[in-house]
């Protein structure tokens, strides 16, 4: 009996986090071409089972993506979705991770993407001097990941925005923030990043980052898909 109890306890410790998710309860509406992969990425990092549904029709009040259905709850806004998953299903969640998720949505997003009133990306400020980016650059000088140097939901939020920058801004040159660039590479190299964002996105981030680290002088035409 004792042996059986120890075995059960051992098995429950070894269970991946996703075991906390009731089968079939998480439905994510989105697509690789939107910002929904940042949610896919996190779900896959914590091994949470989910069903990916096409972007439309969806239950988002503004008809946007991503939107998550968890049983009878409907959660929209990517940051709110990440925090919902983190607090409900991630055994390694701790509150300081939440601050970085909100920071990514409210402070980092507008630095990474200058948009017009229709939401079209016109450029980035990530390659310009910025007090907040200096703090992030300093933090990443001796940490691989943002909170307690362990990969968490904070990285899914922060690295997703950073890694969209080369995609939307082929002319940006991030050579002055090498620790952030190495962090972008580190996150893009994670197998679950590739399965969420796709091989092309990953490869583009990796080759642009390599270029930034060697001065950012490569002919921009090699990234011709944009
Ligand atoms: N702040 C929202 C932004 C959502 C958003 O802009 N989604 C885009 C795709 S990335 C969308 O659905 N656009 C279509 C529309 O606005 O009708 C979030 O973080 O979830």
TrEMBL record:
Alphabetized PROSITE patterns for the sequence: GST_CTER (PS50405), GST_NTER (PS50404)
Domain of life: Eukaryota
Signal peptide span: 1-19
GST C-terminal domain mapped to chain residues: 90-206
Transmembrane segments: none
Record's keyword annotation contains Mitochondrion: no
Signal is among the record's keywords: yes
A Pfam short name: GST_C
Keyword annotations: Signal
GST N-terminal domain: residues covered: 1-93
Family (UniProt): Belongs to the GST superfamily.
Protein name: Glutathione S-transferase
Organism of this sequence: Triparma laevis f. longispina
């Amino acid at each position: 009996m004792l042996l059986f109890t120890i075995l059960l306890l051992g098995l429950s410790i070894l269970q991946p986090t996703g075991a906390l998710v009731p089968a079939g309860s998480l439905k994510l509406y989105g697509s690789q071409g939107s910002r929904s992969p940042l949610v896919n990425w996190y779900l896959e990092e914590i091994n949470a089972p989910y069903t990916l549904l096409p972007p439309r029709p969806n239950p988002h009040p503004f008809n946007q993506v991503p939107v998550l259905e968890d049983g009878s709850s409907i959660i929209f806004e990517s940051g709110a979705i990440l925090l919902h998953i983190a607090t409900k299903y991630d055994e390694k969640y701790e509150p300081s991770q939440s601050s970085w998720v909100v920071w990514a949505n409210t402070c980092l997003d507008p630095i990474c993407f200058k948009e017009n009133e229709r939401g079209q990306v016109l450029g980035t400020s990530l390659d310009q001097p910025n007090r907040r980016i200096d703090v992030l650059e300093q933090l990443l000088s001796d940490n691989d990941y943002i909170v307690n140097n362990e990969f968490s939901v904070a990285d899914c939020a922060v690295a997703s925005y950073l890694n969209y920058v080369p995609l939307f801004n082929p002319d940006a040159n991030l050579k002055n923030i090498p620790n952030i660039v190495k962090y972008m590479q580190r996150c893009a190299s994670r197998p679950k990043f590739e399965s969420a964002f796709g091989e092309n996105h990953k490869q583009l981030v990796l080759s642009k980052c390599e270029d930034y680290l060697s001065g950012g002088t490569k002919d921009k035409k090699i990234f011709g898909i944009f």
